[in-house]
Amino acid sequence: MRLGEIGTFTRGNGLTKSDFVESGVPCIHYGQIHTHYHNYTYNTISFVSAEKAKKLKKAKYGDLVIAGVSEDKDCVCKAVVYLGKQEACVSGDTFIFSHSQNPKFIGYMFQTENFNTFKHKYAQGAKVLRVHNKQLEKFQIPLPPLKVQNDIVEILDKFDTLANDLTNGIPAEIEARKKQYEYYRERLLSFIAKD
């Protein structure tokens, strides 16, 4: 199905880095999508005042926040899934994609070779490249039932942890394999202990 058939795109507005405050309403600036966020986030690193937030577009739980611009084709349309409890304001040069699917599943679809080829085709500009939301609405994805989406996300999350979180992923995997080995060792050798 096309993205435009399963959700809506809203363009961010008016948030600049000069609007950041120490604490307040969560916000995501498009540049941070390139430099700080990975696949998803529960918290933002920046905030704006409640007064400023009244004027800004906001992402809610499960929305994708998509960087609409970049200096190269591979980074344009990098997306982060927002899983925060409180709405987060977003800057101009971003899109909010709201939908009712598994948010991480949609986020992973934005990392596929198919999407990479798609955005390369529609990226426009000289120094700064952008893809317009009208083009994003046309991108087609396979859309399995939510149960299948959930299963796919569970598997991809495990691989992502192994590949990108070396401090947790690899030691956790080693520990899991060690426990698996010990379990099977005990099961396979348990006949020896029988009288």
UniProtKB/TrEMBL annotation:
One of its GO terms (molecular function) is endonuclease activity. Residues 2-176 form the Type I restriction modification DNA specificity domain. The keyword Nuclease applies. It holds the Pfam family Methylase_S. Keywords: DNA-binding, Endonuclease, Hydrolase, Nuclease, Restriction system. Belongs to the type-I restriction system S methylase family. This is Restriction endonuclease subunit S. It comes from Campylobacter vulpis.
